[in-house]
Design brief:
Elements lengths: L13 H10 L6 H10 L5 E2 L1 H8 L8 H13 L4 E6 L2 E5 L5 E6 L4 E6 L23 E4 L6
Helix pairs in contact: 1-2, 2-3, 3-4
Length: 147
C-alpha cells in the first residue's frame, strides 16, 4: 500500500490531523500537520521519500530532514510503526495494530498479514529480566517465474 507517482494521496482534514497529534502529545506545527494529513489518512506503508514527495507534490514546503525528524517523533509517540524490510529500506506503517507483512522484493510493495493468519511457535527462553516487546514477521516474496 504505497503511492503511485501520479496518484493524489488521500488526506485527513487539517483539524483531524491536529486532533490526532494533540492526542499523542505532539505540538501540531504546519509541517507536522502536512505530514500527518497524508501518512495517517488511511492504513498504508510509505517510505520517507514517498512521504516527502506526496507532501511536497503541490508545493515544496517540507524538507527531507523535517520528514525524518517528524517520522522519528511519530514513532516515539506511537502514531506509526517502522517496518525495516532491508538495511536500506524502511516503511512507516500507519496501522499500529499488531500484524505481519508480505514484502514483494521486485515491486517494493509491503502488504499487511493479519495476526491471526500466522501461527506463532513457542519463543525461546528469554534472558533474565526481559520481556517480549513484539514479534514481527516479514515474508519476502519473489515471483517463481523470475530469477
Amino acid at each position: 500500500m504505497g503511492l503511485s507517482a501520479d496518484a493524489t494521496p488521500p488526506r485527513l482534514h487539517s483539524a483531524q490531523a491536529i486532533t490526532l497529534l494533540r492526542e499523542h502529545e505532539i505540538t501540531p506545527t504546519p509541517q507536522r500537520v502536512a505530514i500527518a494529513r497524508i501518512l495517517l489518512a488511511r492504513a498504508q506503508h510509505l517510505s520517507a521519500d514517498q512521504l516527502l514527495e506526496a507532501v511536497n507534490r503541490s508545493e515544496p514546503r517540507v524538507s527531507k530532514a523535517t520528514v525524518y525528524n517528524t517520522l522519528g517523533l511519530f514513532l516515539r509517540k506511537g502514531l506509526v510503526r517502522a517496518v525495516v524490510v532491508d538495511p536500506a529500506k524502511v516503511f512507516y506503517d500507519s496501522n499500529t495494530r499488531f500484524h505481519h507483512h508480505f514484502y514483494d522484493i521486485k515491486s517494493g510493495t509491503l502488504t499487511d498479514i493479519e495476526e491471526t493468519e500466522i501461527g506463532m511457535p513457542a519463543l525461546p527462553n528469554l534472558p533474565n529480566g526481559s520481556i517480549v516487546e513484539s514479534v514481527e514477521i516479514i515474508v519476502r516474496l519473489r515471483s517463481r517465474f523470475t530469477q
